[in-house]
Specification:
The complex is a heterodimer of chains A (582) and B (321).
Chain A (H helix, E strand, L loop, with lengths): L7 H8 L6 E3 L6 E5 L1 H14 L6 E9 L13 E9 L4 E9 L5 E3 L8 H12 L2 E3 L36 H10 L19 E5 L11 E7 L2 E8 L7 H5 L8 H5 L10 H12 L5 H29 L5 H20 L8 E2 L2 E2 L7 H24 L2 H7 L7 H6 L5 H4 L7 H4 L20 H24 L25 H12 L7 E8 L4 E8 L5 E7 L2 H6 L1 H5 L4 H11 L3 H5 L1
Parallel strand pairs in A: 2-5, 6-7
Antiparallel strand pairs in A: 1-2, 3-4, 4-5, 8-9, 9-10, 11-12, 13-14, 14-15
Helix pairs in contact in A: 8-9, 8-15, 8-19, 9-10, 10-15, 15-19
Chain B lengths: L1 H34 L15 H10 L11 H18 L17 H23 L2 H32 L4 H6 L11 H14 L11 H4 L9 H26 L15 H22 L5 H30 L1
Helix pairs in contact in B: 1-2, 1-9, 1-10, 3-4, 3-9, 4-5, 5-7, 5-11, 7-9, 9-10
Classes of the chains: A alpha+beta (582), B mainly alpha (321).
C-alpha cells in the first residue's frame, strides 16, 4: 500500500510551500498526516486537482471521540476528524486527521471538493455534533430530527438500562409523525416560483421497490422527475455504537447484518482488521476457506440482485428461478457453517469449524449445474428486448462521475474502470487465484447488471479453484488471541488454561492501535476502521459501506428520468438499507 | 315469458361467471407456480382448489374502509362500475348456438362500448382516492386505454368486413369455411395486444405497476371493493379470451371437422382456456415496458398496422367481388 516509489509529502510540499503536517505511523501502513482545519480545504484541493496522479476519491470520512482514549497519537484532543483519501492512479491511500477541541467543534466542509462528502459530513454532525462550515444542508441523517444529543460521543448512553423507560405518548407520536412531513425548505431547496407546477411524490420509506426502508422525495412534472431527494436512516441500528460495548469476538454476528445479503463476507474485513492488530498469521487453509465462503456469498447476493433487478422492470419469474439456485447454495452454506444467511462463521484467527465430510462434492455438483441455468437467465433477462429498452442508456454515469461520488464495486467497473480490490491489493490470498475482472463500458443500468452476472461466473471459477486446491492443515491460527483459542492443551498446562479461560470469558484483549481493513464486498468496497485502546472491546469501530455513497448519487441520476427509469436505476445500484444505515 | 327466460339466463350466467373468475385466480396462481419452479397455493382443499373461497371469506369479513380523505361516493361507485361494465359485455358473447343473452345485431359495438366504459372505473377510482400513486395510475390508465382502444376497434373491422355483420353469432357462423385467424392473422395479433392492454395485464399493467406505483389506481382499496377490481380484472381476461375465440377462432365451431363428438360449448371453453393460459404465460415471461414506450408502440406501430390491415382486407374483398 504505502510502498510507492514517489514519496508523497515532498510532492505536495512543492505545490503548497508551508505545508508541514505531523506524521503518525499507523499499524495498517496508511500514510497518516495530522493537519489543522485551516489547512484542510487548500490541501484537499491540491491533492485532488493539482497533484500529478491525484487523490481523486474521498474514500471515507468519520470522527473519533478521543475523550476516554488512553493510547492514541499525542496530537489528539477531544475529537478527531478522519479523512481517508484514495488515489487510484497511485493505488495509495492517505489519511488526514484533524484534532478538535470539544468547545470548538467545527471544520470546513469538503462538499465543494468532493460532492460525496455531503452525507459523510451530515453523518459526523449527526453522530458527533461536529459542524461543517459551508455545508449546503447540514441536518441529521441517521437519527430522527428531534433526537437529543449525538450518539457516538462517549457521554451518550449506549444501553437501554442507562436511559429511562421507553414511552410514546400520543403528543410525542404526533410530533414525530409531523416532523416526517416533507418540507422542501428544510432540505435546502430554494424556492423557484414554479412550485405549483410540480407535484411532490413521497416514494418510500415503505415502497415495494426501494429494497428496504428508503425514502426518496420526488418532484414530478407529469411522470418526469425534476428533483429527487433521498432520505435515509430508517434502518439505523447503531452498529458502530454497539461495537463499543461488545467484546471483539461477540461483535462478529453484528457484522453479518450490515450487508445482510453478504453473510460471512462482512466478517472478513472485521476479523482481518483484528488479526492485523493482534499480529495473527492466519493458516493457508483458513484463508482459502474464507475466500470460498466469501465468493459463495457474492454469488448469493448477485443472484438476488439479478432477480430483483428483473422484477423491478416487471419480469416476475427470474427471481423465483434464482431463489431455487440460492436455496441449493444455502443448503451448502448450512452444511458447512450450520446457518444460512448470517453464519457469523469467521473467527479471529481462522474460521469456526473445519469443513464437513463431503463438502467438496456438494459444491462441485452445484457448480456443474449452474452454468446452464445462468445461460437460461441470460436469454430470459439480459437478451429480453423490453428489458434492454428499459435499461440500456438509463441511469448512466461515467468513471469520473462515479469516482467523484464515491462509487465502488460493480457500479464503478460498469463504467469501464478496471479496479477490483482483489486484484489491486490482494487480501486473504486472492493473488493465488485465477479470475478476470468483468468490465462494461456504458455505466448504465444494463451494464451494471451485466458486470454482476459475469462476476457470478468469475466467482464460480474461484470457488472451483478453492475446491480443487484446498490446502490441508489447521483451520485456526495457533495464536493466543485466536478466539475461541485452540483447546487441545488447555487441560494439560496452566499457561494455556489461563489465556483460554480469559479469552473465552472476557474475550481476547487486542493490542492498541488503528487499522483500516477493506474487502471487495458484494456491493462495492466495504471497510472496517477499527481502533483498539488495548481493551477487550473496541474503542471505536467505523464501518465504511459501499451502499452509503451509492444512494447519495441518486439525485444526479434521477434528474430528467421517468419514475419507471428511477425504479430501474435503484434496482441496478444493488443496495440494502442495512448496509447504508448500519 | 321471453323476459323471464332472459332473466333466468342472466342469473345463471352471473352465477357461473363469478365462481369461474374466482377459480381463475387459483388457476393463474397454480400455473404461475408451475412456470416459476414453485408450488403455488396447495393447502386449502385438494390441490388448493378452495384457496379462492378462503380468500373470498377473508375479504368479505374485512373492514369495509373508506379513507377519510377520499371522495366517498365516487370511491364506492368506481369498483362497482368496473365490474358491471365487464359483466354487461358478456350479454352479447355467444358461447354455443343460441347460448347468448342478447344476440344483438350490434353486439361487437356493444362490446367495444363497454370496454371503453371500464376505463372510467379506473379513472374515477384513482381520482377519488386522493392519493398521488392512485392518481398517476389513473392517468396512465386513461392514456393507455385511449391509445389502445383506437386500434382495438380498427383491428376488428377486417373481421366485420369478412363476416358482413356486427352480430357475433353471425361472425362465428361466417367462420365455417375457415377461422378468421388465417385471413386476419394481423388483425388477430393486433386485437390480442389491444386486449391485453385493455385488461391491464402484464406487460401492460402500467396502471398498477406494483414496483413503481405500489398498486396504482387501487392503492387505497381494500376488502370487498378491492375484490371487485380484482374480479373485474379476471372477468376482463376471460372476456377478451372469449372475444378472441368468437372473432378469430371460430367460437364454438369444432376444428378439423370433428363435429358431433363433443358439444360446441366444450370447444368454446377449451379455446377460451387456452387463450387464458396464454395470458398467464405472458405474465410469467415478460417484463414491463416504460409508459412512454408503451404509448409510442401503440401509436407508431399498432395504429398504422391496423390501418394497413384494414386497407388490404378491404382491397382484397373489393377485388374479389
Amino acid at each position: 500500500m504505502a510502498d510507492t516509489p514517489l514519496p508523497l509529502l515532498p510532492q505536495v510540499q512543492v505545490l503548497s510551500k508551508d505545508f508541514a503536517p505531523e506524521l503518525e505511523s499507523s499499524k495498517d501502513g496508511v500514510e497518516t498526516w495530522w493537519i489543522t482545519k485551516e489547512e484542510l480545504l487548500p490541501l484537499c484541493s491540491v491533492l485532488k486537482n493539482k497533484l500529478p496522479q491525484p487523490f481523486d476519491f474521498l474514500y471515507d470520512l468519520t470522527a473519533i471521540d478521543e475523550t476516554r482514549r488512553k493510547n492514541g497519537a499525542p496530537q489528539r484532543q477531544d475529537l478527531t476528524l478522519v479523512y481517508l483519501l484514495r488515489s487510484y492512479a497511485r493505488n495509495q491511500d492517505l489519511r488526514l486527521k484533524i484534532a478538535l477541541r470539544a468547545d470548538l467543534k467545527d471544520a470546513p466542509s469538503l462538499c465543494s471538493v468532493w460532492p460525496c462528502a455531503n452525507w459523510y459530513e451530515r453523518e459526523v454532525w449527526d453522530l458527533f455534533g461536529i459542524r461543517f462550515d459551508g455545508h449546503p444542508c447540514l441536518r441529521r441523517i441517521m437519527m430522527p430530527s428531534s433526537w437529543q444529543g449525538h450518539p457516538l460521543l462517549k457521554t451518550h448512553p449506549a444501553r437501554a438500562t442507562e436511559m429511562g423507560p421507553f414511552s410514546l405518548p400520543d403528543e410525542v407520536r404526533d410530533f414525530e409523525q409531523e416532523s416526517l412531513r416533507f418540507d422542501p425548505k428544510a432540505w435546502g431547496l430554494k424556492p423557484t416560483g414554479l412550485e405549483d407546477e410540480f407535484m411532490w411524490l413521497n416514494l418510500g420509506p415503505n415502497h415495494p421497490s426501494v429494497h428496504g426502508v428508503f425514502r426518496i422525495m420526488l418532484q414530478l412534472d407529469g411522470e418526469a422527475i425534476r428533483n429527487a431527494i433521498p432520505d435515509i436512516g430508517y434502518h439505523h441500528r447503531g452498529a458502530e455504537k454497539m461495537a463499543e460495548r461488545q467484546s471483539w469476538h461477540s461483535y462478529i454476528p453484528y457484522t453479518d447484518r450490515i450487508d445482510y445479503l453478504g453473510g460471512v463476507m462482512n466478517n472478513l474485513p472485521y476479523v482481518m482488521a483484528l488479526e492485523r492488530l493482534g499480529g495473527i498469521e492466519v493458516p493457508e487453509r483458513a484463508k482459502v476457506i474464507r475466500v470460498m465462503m466469501a465468493e459463495i456469498f457474492r454469488i448469493l447476493s448477485h443472484l438476488l440482485f439479478y432477480g430483483t433487478f428483473a422484477q423491478d422492470v416487471g419480469a416476475l419469474s427470474p427471481i423465483f428461478y434464482m431463489f431455487v439456485d440460492r436455496e441449493k447454495l444455502f443448503g451448502i452454506v448450512e452444511a458447512i457453517t450450520g446457518a444460512r444467511m448470517h453464519p457469523s462463521w469467521f473467527r479471529i484467527g481462522g474460521v469456526a469449524n473445519d469443513l464437513p465430510n463431503g463438502w467438496d462434492k456438494m459444491i462441485l455438483t452445484w457448480l456443474d449445474e449452474m452454468p446452464k441455468r445462468l445461460r437460461d437467465y441470460d436469454k430470459m433477462v439480459l437478451a429480453n428486448r423490453i428489458l434492454r429498452k428499459r435499461t440500456v442508456g438509463v441511469g448512466a454515469y461515467d468513471s469520473a462521475t462515479a469516482i467523484e461520488w464515491g462509487v465502488t464495486g460493480p457500479g464503478l467497473r460498469a463504467t469501464g474502470f478496471d479496479w477490483d480490490l482483489r486484484k489491486a491489493r490482494p487480501y486473504s490470498g486472492y493473488e493465488q487465484f485465477e479470475f478476470d475482472v468483468p468490465l462494461a463500458q456504458n455505466g448504465d443500468c444494463y451494464d451494471r447488471c451485466l458486470v454482476r452476472v459475469e462476476e457470478i461466473r468469475q466467482s464460480m471459477r474461484i470457488i472451483r479453484q478453492c475446491v480443487e486446491n484446498m490446502p490441508g492443515g489447521p483451520y485456526k491460527a495457533d495464536h493466543v488471541l485466536t478466539t475461541p483459542p485452540p483447546k487441545d492443551r488447555t487441560m494439560e498446562d496452566i499457561d494455556t488454561l489461563i489465556p483460554h479461560f480469559l479469552g473465552v470469558s472476557w474475550g481476547p484483549v487486542i493490542p492498541a492501535g488503528e487499522v483500516h481493513s477493506e474487502v471487495e464486498a458484494t456491493k462495492g468496497s466495504n471497510a472496517y476502521y477499527v481502533i483498539s485502546d488495548g481493551g477487550n472491546m473496541s474503542y471505536r469501530t467505523h464501518i465504511r459501506t459501499p451502499s452509503f455513497p451509492h444512494l447519495q448519487m441518486i439525485p444526479v441520476l434521477a434528474k430528467g428520468q421517468m419514475v419507471a427509469d428511477l425504479i430501474a436505476t435503484i434496482g441496478s445500484i444493488d443496495f440494502v438499507m442495512a448496509d447504508v444505515d448500519r | 315469458m321471453n323476459f323471464w327466460y332472459s332473466f333466468l339466463a342472466i342469473v345463471v350466467l352471473v352465477m357461473l361467471l363469478l365462481p369461474t373468475a374466482a377459480m381463475l385466480v387459483w388457476v393463474e396462481r397454480r400455473l404461475l407456480g408451475f412456470w416459476q419452479e414453485r408450488l403455488g397455493p396447495n393447502r386449502v382443499g385438494p390441490y388448493g382448489i378452495l384457496q379462492s373461497l378462503a380468500d373470498l371469506i377473508k375479504i368479505l369479513f374485512k373492514h369495509d374502509w373508506i379513507p377519510p380523505f377520499a371522495d366517498a361516493k365516487v370511491f364506492v361507485a368506481a369498483p362497482l362500475m368496473g365490474a358491471l361494465a365487464v359483466m354487461m359485455s358478456y350479454a352479447v358473447v355467444p358461447m354455443a348456438p343460441g347460448w347468448v343473452i342478447s344476440d344483438s345485431h350490434i353486439g361487437l359495438l356493444f362490446f367495444l362500448a363497454m370496454t371503453s366504459l371500464a376505463v372510467y372505473s379506473v379513472l374515477l377510482a384513482g381520482w377519488s382516492s386522493n392519493n398521488k400513486y392512485a392518481l398517476i395510475g389513473a392517468m396512465r390508465a386513461a392514456a393507455q386505454t385511449i391509445s389502445y382502444e383506437v386500434f382495438m376497434g380498427l383491428s376488428l373491422l377486417g373481421v366485420v368486413m369478412l363476416a358482413g355483420s356486427f352480430r357475433l353469432s353471425d361472425i362465428v357462423l361466417a367462420q365455417q369455411e375457415g377461422w378468421f385467424i388465417l385471413p386476419q392473422c394481423l388483425g388477430f395479433v393486433l386485437f390480442l395486444i389491444a386486449g391485453i392492454a385493455e385488461s391491464h395485464r402484464l406487460p401492460f399493467d402500467l396502471p398498477e405497476a406494483e414496483t413503481e406505483l405500489t398498486a396504482g389506481f387501487h392503492t387505497e382499496y381494500s376488502g370487498i371493493k378491492f375484490a371487485l377490481f380484482f374480479l373485474g380484472e379476471y372477468l376482463g381476461v376471460m372476456l377478451i379470451s372469449m372475444m378472441i375465440t368468437v372473432l378469430f377462432l371460430g367460437g364454438w365451431l369444432a376444428p378439423f371437422g370433428l363435429e358431433g363428438f363433443i358439444p360446441p360449448i366444450i370447444w368454446f371453453v377449451l379455446k377460451t382456456f387456452v387463450l387464458i393460459s396464454f395470458f398467464i404465460l405472458l405474465r410469467a415471461a415478460l417484463p414491463r415496458p416504460r409508459f412512454d414506450q408503451l404509448l409510442a408502440f401503440g401509436w407508431l406501430w399498432m395504429l398504422p398496422l391496423s390501418l394497413i390491415n384494414l386497407l388490404v382486407t378491404a382491397a382484397l374483398i373489393l377485388g374479389g367481388q
